[in-house]
Specification:
Blueprint: H1 3-10, E1 17-20, H2 23-33, E2 37-42, E3 50-55, E4 58-64, E5 84-88, H3 92-101, E6 110-112, E7 115-121, E8 127-133
Parallel strand pairs: 1-4, 5-8
Antiparallel strand pairs: 2-3, 3-4, 6-7, 7-8
Length: 145
């Protein structure tokens, strides 16, 4: 068995890991706004410093920047710039409607690459795209009913 085959069989999932400025604000956005569920957390001194969130079969991790001590890792530049994740869904239009009903500023869906696509940006600027296959013509825009 080649090395490539062994790695292919062994690797199961890629999980984005976002460093965030304010964990409480990010958790409100992801849990209350987007509908993620917290599956695991690390709480030194009783405060959530890291967590594993899931929505459907997808996951991501959040960790707050260290502001003091030997592990301080505050960025000098804005975070989230150029970072995006695409979540493949059964129905991106239903997700768009649900997000809007929760007060999330989701962009109007459009068709790109044979997929309905709606976009949101989290409080730190990370972009999340929710996409689902469609036969609608390219560049179509969703019209609310």
């Amino acid at each position: 068995m080649s090395v490539e085959t062994k790695l292919e069989v062994n690797v199961r999932q890629a999980v984005p890991f976002f460093l965030v400025w304010d964990m409480e604000r990010s958790l409100r956005y992801y849990l209350d706004g987007l509908g993620f569920v917290m599956k695991n957390k690390w709480t030194p001194e009783g405060k959530i410093r890291w967590c594993w969130l899931e929505i459907g079969e997808a996951a991501l991790m959040l960790q707050e920047f260290w502001r003091e001590g030997p592990d301080v890792n505050l960025p000098k530049e804005k975070v989230g710039v150029g970072v995006s994740i695409c979540f493949t869904c059964r129905d991106a239009l239903a997700i768009y409607r649900e997000l809007r009903s929760r007060g999330v500023d989701a962009k109007r869906p459009f068709v790109g690459n044979r997929m309905w696509v709606t976009e949101v940006a989290d409080p730190d600027g990370y972009k999340l795209f929710f996409e689902s296959p469609t036969d609608a013509p390219e560049e179509s825009e969703y019209v609310e009913e």
